[in-house]
Amino acid sequence: MTTPRSPRAARPTPTPRAQTVTQKQPARLPRRHDEADFQSQVIQYARINRWRVFHAFDSRLGSRAIDAGFPDLVMVKDGHLLVCELKANNGRVKPEQTDWLMALQECGIRVRIWRPRDWNEIERVLTTYESEASA
Question: How far apart are CA 83 and CA 53, in angstroms?
Fold first, then answer.
């Protein structure tokens, strides 16, 4: 004995409708990803220009080894020390980051807060730091 087919199963599969393709803005990357990409670019450029670069793990997590807010990069070249906090163009410097930067600056260390829009300055500083340091 055969079971009758339902009327639904007997219907042919509809052909897909022509879909309208709309231009969408690319999804905005999360700020953390933006900063990570920017940081990689700065590190690469610094190394090309013969800077020694130190980057600590994510200091926001804190640990016994590092306090929260420690700057992203510590760079050394030819007797010059440069400490940088890197931010996305719309990123905010947190109070604990400001505290670290001020404490290091009080020790005579040059500190910078850099964003992607500061790339011209980044290139200038990393390629001609000696002339800036003496100014």
Answer: 10
